[in-house]
Amino acid sequence: MGCDGIRSCAFGDADAPERVEEVRAEQRKLLAADLVVLQFPLWWYGMPAILNGWVDRVFESGFAYHVPDPETGRMLKYGRGGLEGRRALVVVSAGDRAGSLSPRGISGSIDDVLWPLLHGTLWYTGMQPLRPHLVAEADSVDATRANRLERCLADRLARIDGEELIDYLPLDDEFYDHSIRLHDDVSPGLEGIAAHRRCGV
Predict the structure, then answer these.
(1) What's residue 2's pLDDT?
(2) In the 3-class helix/strand/coil scheme, how is the chain assigned residue by residue?
(3) 65, 58 in Cβ contact below 8 A?
(4) pLDDT average, residue stretch 175-194
(5) What pLDDT shows up at residue 18?
(6) N or C end of the chain: which has fewer CB within 10 A?
(7) Count of beta carbons in the 10 Å neighbourhood of residue 132
(8) Are 96 and 107 in contact (CB under 8 A)?
């Protein structure tokens, strides 16, 4: 989908026939995919605005989210949704050192930094996120390191079918109460992001 600026992607005339067809074409690509790869430079701890605009347009209500369960009529989300059955890999480059985006780094773990995307967008719409692929110190890559980084990503993609998913808890009565808060006996002693993964159960 071509975007000639943020406004045309996120705020253009969404009802214009050519815009509607562009969105439908992108949605067909998502539905045909087993693995969705989002690759971007980390921008203020998230996606650049142009990619965010693409998500806003393509992951629309009734397609990616706000999809009713045919059995209960409840809206499917957090592990179920319009994009259920697909895995997602985020490949992100950052100018900072890898240590700064680790669990004890100043920015926190890259998994936590990307929580809004991994959990709030991908998992919310039913996709199963994999651990992000971080390319650190991306602003100082020479040809030798570029080749090494390319091989590393290619090796990961070659083995990705057997890779473990981020095991987020599904929105289910077993884990969450009516206010969508974890039951007291789920992930005892844990708070924050870590409490919403099965390893915390």
Answers:
(1) 54
(2) CCCCCHHHHHCCCCCCHHHHHHHHHHHHHHHHCCEEEEEEECECCECCHHHHHHHHHHCCECCCECEECCCCCCEECCCCCCCCCCEEEEEEECCCCHHHHCCCCCCCCHHHHCHHHHHHHHHCCCCEEECCEEECCHHHCCHHHHHHHHHHHHHHHHCHHHCCECCECCCCCCCECCCCCECCCCCCCCCHHHHHEHHHC
(3) no
(4) 94
(5) 80
(6) N
(7) 21
(8) yes
Span 81-90, mean pLDDT? 97
Token pair 């009713």 in the structure block, residue: 68
23's tokens: 């969105």
Size of the chain in residues: 201
Q: Helices 17-32 & 49-58, crossing angle to 10 degrees?
A: 90
For residue 73, is it left (φ>0), alpha (ψ between -120 and 50) or beta?
left
pTM of the model: 0.88
Residue 143: both structure tokens together: 């040809």
Tokens of 145: 């390191």
